[in-house]
Design goal:
It is a single chain. This protein has 354 residues and is mainly beta. It is built from two helices and 28 strands. Helix content is 3%, strand content 40%. The longest helix has 5 residues. Strand 11 and strand 12 form a beta hairpin. It has a single domain, classed as Beta-galactosidase, Chain A, domain 5, CATH 2.70.98.10.
Length: 354
């Protein structure tokens, strides 16, 4: 639960420049601080102390508007209406085919070229945090149904940041929302995350083709570089000559989480640990999957507040989600939302120290 002592502050991203229309909301609770942008409902920064009490900012991010709108356009954003990939840039619902806006290569990624990450959301203060709202009209990027979405961020003094998603639709549609933050528990710009320890509560993953589209089956992680059932360094197997790793140059895959609790509450999906600083990040979610992307393709196009360009493995994305391309794989958990139903999803980012 969010602490009543959480302080909320609102200000323009850039009062004197082109970013003046973008609001930055800052949540402060105890030694923890998170900032949000109304552009993309973005989790922009997240600060926490290390084992010695020294505070660092843990997300890859930039205040440069040209970079926020360009190469950093998905950093920390809420991506949708359908996070991750849809093959063929089309969905069929109840026998009706809906062509979608393509992001290239016959794929619709993160909701299309003008997805939720590029939208201005309306923000308001709520207890312990901020609630952001977006209306997505019928036919938006090709998706059927007018969709009303809220994302609520709350922070407490124990280091728990809760992201709660809610959506309703006017017509049958597909919905898959996630947050696309990149974490470096040593602090942004401090180097790569290959020495971070990662644990995933998943015994299977969904192998994918060269475009990172799942084949539609699951495979066990045991005996493969995808086995993070016990903590191991991210870099231990990331360069292995495994056919699933050589194409993307590292991890960019969906893991199948162990069954979620019957009461519908969030359960642990991942634990990220930094042996150097002692910081830890526990990820809990109601979602059935988690996409892990180790920033394999980063080439220094974005420079953070540290002044360091972000290269390969500068951070790790832990995207709680339904599976990629679910509309084309009936064996995957369904992402269909119908009128009268409510889409609800909760992810908890729990910071701590060893």
């Amino acid at each position: 639960m969010a602490s009543e002592a959480t302080r909320v502050r609102r200000e323009p991203l850039d009062p004197a420049g082109a970013g003046a229309a973008i609001e930055r909301w800052t949540l402060t609770a105890g030694p923890y601080e998170a900032s949000l942008l109304t552009l993309g409902a973005t989790l922009h920064t997240l600060s926490a102390p290390d084992r010695a009490g020294r505070t660092a900012q843990l997300l890859l991010s930039t205040d440069e508007l040209a970079q926020i709108l360009g190469p950093a356009r998905h950093y920390g954003t809420v991506v949708g209406r359908y996070a991750n990939r849809i093959d063929g840039s089309e969905v069929t619902i109840d026998g009706e085919q809906h062509p979608l806006a393509s992001t290239g290569g016959g794929i619709t990624l993160h909701g299309g070229p003008d997805g939720f990450a590029q939208r201005m959301w309306q923000a308001e203060e709520t207890e312990g945090g901020v609630r952001l709202r977006l209306h997505s009209p019928d036919g938006d990027q090709g998706f059927p149904g007018a969709l009303d979405v809220t994302v609520t961020y709350t922070l407490d003094a124990g280091g728990e940041l809760v992201i709660a998603y809610h959506a309703v639709t006017g017509r049958p549609t597909v919905v898959n929302l996630t947050n696309h933050a990149y974490f470096n528990l040593s602090g942004e710009g401090s180097g790569d995350v290959l020495g971070h320890l990662l644990t995933l509560d998943a015994d299977e993953y969904t192998p994918a083709d060269e475009r990172q589209i799942p084949y539609g089956r699951t495979e066990p992680v045991a005996g493969t570089p995808f086995d993070f059932t016990v903590a191991k360094p991210i870099g231990k197997s990331v360069h292995d000559a495994h056919p699933q790793l050589t194409g993307p140059g590292g991890y960019d895959h969906n893991w199948v989480l162990r069954p979620r609790p019957a009461d519908g509450g969030p359960a642990r999906a991942a634990l990220l640990e930094d042996p150097v600083s002692g910081r830890t990040l526990e990820v809990l979610t109601t979602e059935p999957g988690i996409q892990v992307y180790t920033a394999n393709k980063f080439q220094g196009a974005v420079t953070g507040a540290s002044g360091v360009p972000y290269g390969p493995f500068a951070g790790i994305a832990l995207e709680t989600q339904h599976f990629p391309d679910s509309p084309h794989h009936p064996s995957f958990p369904s992402t269909v939302l119908r009128p009268g139903e409510e889409f609800r999803s909760t992810t908890v980012l729990r910071l701590g120290v060893n």
